[in-house]
Queue: 2 jobs
Job 1
Amino acid sequence: GAGVSQTPSNKVTEKGKYVELRCDPISGHTALYWYRQSLGQGPEFLIYFQGTGAADDSGLPNDRFFAVRPEGSVSTLKIQRTERGDSAVYLCASSLMSSREQFFGPGTRLTVL
Amino acid sequence: GDSVTQMEGPVTLSEEAFLTINCTYTATGYPSLFWYVQYPGEGLQLLLKATKADDKGSNKGFEATYRKETTSFHLEKGSVQVSDSAVYFCALFHAGNNRKLIWGLGTSLAVNP
């Protein structure tokens, strides 16, 4: 079966622009997570969805970051007024609610010039 | 709060050498522990896991034992191959953390022929 997919794989944007990053979880996985990974670091938690609602958004760094999952499947991470410090690989993962194992997508590499 | 400490890399070994990557954690209660691997240019993949004390996770010749008394989950392999060259991440899952994974910084392994 298909794994977690993320688009685009690479995104280059200019400072101040708006970007959207998309995640398609594994079919049937009700839990969805966004992480951010900077070079030489482990992933950093951003937000967790249980179905359509954000169960924990405590990792979002500020109000420029927002994520949605309107139908409980695909999720979009939205970043407004991008800054150079937002450059990182954005990872999406999904899991069954009954499982502690998270399956990761390949990530979107965001570069803000 | 919960945390994971991993031995710093990079680690460079010759083929067929013995590998140990240390991982210790801080958490209340009984977390689940994971090792993820990130091969060059690829996404994070679950390597092995252990969900309770004294469990041993194993996969692809790698092993790690959940030691509650020393709060450790060290990764070992008896004979590494060039194809094991990757970055290895230790991670902790605790239901009290609203299902997010807490990560170590990662250890880069290079295996030379």
Job 2
Amino acid sequence: NAGVMQNPRHLVRRRGQEARLRCSPMKGHSHVYWYRQLPEEGLKFMVYLQKENIIDESGMPKERFSAEFPKEGPSILRIQQVVRGDSAAYFCASSPRTSGGHNEQFFGPGTRLTVL
Amino acid sequence: GQQVMQIPQYQHVQEGEDFTTYCNSSTTLSNIQWYKQRPGGHPVFLIQLVKSGEVKKQKRLTFQFGEAKKNSSLHITATQTTDVGTYFCAGPSRYNFNKFYFGSGTKLNVKP
């Protein structure tokens, strides 16, 4: 069973460009979380999605950021018109949530975004 | 604002010394999970505690979940250089399963 996959692992963008980050959850997992981590800082929750639904996006900036988890295919975190402050590591995690609540999350290797 | 705080933010210990990180939530949690992130790596799940007052051990690591389910601790006995990394607590709100909170993390450095 392959782990959580994220691509690309490293992404370089110039200010004003778009960044598109992909996350393929573990097989059988229908819950996806996105986190941002600035250098030497902790994880900041961004968004929690289930298939075709955004459950909680309270951690995501209102502008320029969007996320989706379609019925087929990976989850996408999209950042439009990137700025230098968007440079960070973006981690995706998936979970086989059951009726008992949030279960352990399996993290991908992350995408390191650098904005020039 | 930040819902789950951890102290200390940083801890430097000599190999062989003990280490404890404390996790405090402003809201009651349904369960508490602990993760470890090695430098340059991604967070890895360590353990989950569900019951009020629960204590679990993994070799040199001892995890506790508070009676009120609002705080937790991780204690490492006789640290080793392999313990280096950042330790995060995390958990869902007891009253809103859709809300999941990650702690601010404690970065542990172990000197050989």
